[in-house]
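Progress report, Aim 2. The chain analyzed during this reporting quarter is listed below.
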Amino acid sequence: MAQDDLRVLRLGYTEEPDMLVDYTSNTLLGWSMFRLHSQPQWGTTQQQEIVPLLIDEAPSYDNGGIVITDEGTQVIKFTIADWAVWSDGTPITAADFVLPYEIANDGVSQVLAFRMLGGLAGSVAQGETEKDVVVTFDAPNPDWQYAAIVPLPNHILREGYEADLANGIGFELNSWVRQPTVSNGPFVFAEWVTGSYLRFVKNQNYWKDVWFDEVVLNFYSDVSVLEQLMVAGELDMTRYILPASRAAELVAANDFLDVRTSFGGVRLELEYNQGPNGHPALKDQRVRHAMSMGIDRQFMVDEIYNGIAEVANTWWAGTPWYNPDALMLPFDPAGAVELLREAGWYDEDGDGVAEAHGVDGVEDGLPLEITATTYADIQHYQDSLLYVQDVLADIGIKMNITLHTIAEIHGSFTNNSPLATGQYDAYLVAWVPGVATVATFGPYYCTDIPSEANPFGLNGPQICNERVDELWTSLSVSLDQAEREAAADEIQVLMAEDLYTQYLVNILYAATYNKRLVWEASDVSDFTPWLNIADWHYEE
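Predicted structure tokens for the chain:
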């Protein structure tokens, strides 16, 4: 086929992935890209229904594929389909599922705990034949359908991985995480020009027809350039980079564009550094409450997001598990100033910045001047932090902002990530927990503070409430739905009182696209937008 005849799906981003194999990535785009080129044994829809991908039949209690043993473990068995092969034609076997489990547990590789079996204790092994996989959880898993494992090609990686491991080199340093040249999804990695584009080509050995010949992700440092190319018809889609409000404006002005929105659990939160590097004022609950009272979240919804967002005050805001009894402090700048004064922070010298006066362990005169960071590659996060900077100045708190890319902020301790190493006092970030189940991953465990021994720990701000940890763990192991919901209710009450992290607004996913593109996605499932990408096509 001539180059001009290729069907190329063109996507635009201002963010570039850190890698293409997400076992060692803590970014949304890295996670998403992994599932563009490689697929697990099954995915799930927004209705939590299993979609077989590498298997003919999903396991269930009825067919014997799921068993709770007398010892209290839960065993899940599935058989890889005979037609399931890698892009080089090699059959997919149990060894390909065992390999990522071994990497996650080798004691050297920096694998995020929740990327394997949802962070729950268990094992992955071969069953009776090389096509049979046995997953065992040490305790019953109420959300077993999300125990999807993306296999790795054992026939290519095993020898090099073991040689590296013998020399103390983890899998995160393997070139494969950036150049996975063999995959099992509808597209295969072809080329990555850093700072410019990332290209995938059709997998000729995929189990179903694929309409597009290539997928190209183009990267732009300036969001206005991305918008111009969407308007010029040179891009087919951009996802989550533009807020829903801006996407709506572009659609209103260009009748060949459209937008779809959905809520996947993404919310802006301002995390306060509780570690040794954090400003001492942030250790005082009264100061954290005052900061909350100084931020008008409804203004953010109305002005920054043009009403296409909603105020948030808990991890589960906007979901069926939201607890309306969780504390929601009002916007009250005058009250915030009084609360800061009560805590020993007020402006005596008239420079507009509060100083310490009689604060235990703090030298008198220390200014209430904090550092903060957010994502350099998504504009509306920057707009939000600039707003926070302005309104905190009104109550006597000076904020100095430095920007970092998403990959930098959510990198590892060993890579000197700003979040993992506690370089700033406050972090405006967002997690993507999804909305399919109450049992989301938790980024606030006392035991998950990043360190050399735990470089990919999620708890960079070093938040710690042991009761919250206990409750969060129960979400993933209790089979009693009422008990799980009660645990989520209590977590929300405790965290809203502690206010170690300030939830601000729920953000809608916005996919801005050219109407010529016929597509569907499963945004709020565990499987990213690419579940049906083999069927995406241009309108005839």
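The domain at 3-176 is CATH 3.90.76.10 (Dipeptide-binding Protein; domain 1). The chain has two domains: 3-176, 267-509. These observations will guide the mutagenesis work planned for the next reporting period.
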